Amino acid sequence: MRSIPPLAINDRALYDSITAAKREPRRRRLALARPRVLAAYATYRLLAPDLDTLEAAHLPQTRQEALRHAYTVETQPMTDLRGRLLERAESARCPFCGISESSTLDHYLPKELYPEFSVYSRNLVPSCGFCNNLKRELIVDNNTGVRVFVHPYFDFIPREDFLSVRVRISNNALILSYRLQRPANMPRRTFQRLGLHFDALGLADRYRRMGLEHLGGQYPSLRRAYGDNRDAARVANKLAEEAEDFEEAFGPNYWLAKLYRGLAGNAQFCDGGFDVVRTRTQPL
Question: Which one of 87, 104, 131, 201 has the fewest beta carbons within 10 angstroms of its own beta carbon?
Answer without folding.
Answer: 87
